[in-house]
Amino acid sequence: MITKSIPSLLTVGNLFLGVIAIILVFNEKPDTAAMMVLIAMLLDGVDGRVARALNVQSEFGKELDSLSDVISFGVAPAFIMYVVAFQELNPAYAWIVTALFPICGALRLARFNVISSAPGYFIGLPIPAAGGVLATLALFKDDIYVSVLLASTFALSILMVSTIKYPNFKKVGIPKSAVWVVPVVIIVAIVLGLIFKNDLSKILFVPLLLYALYGLKKNVDRRLKKRNRKRGKRGDQPEEPVQSEKPA
Question: What is the pTM assigned to this prediction?
Answer without folding.
Answer: 0.81
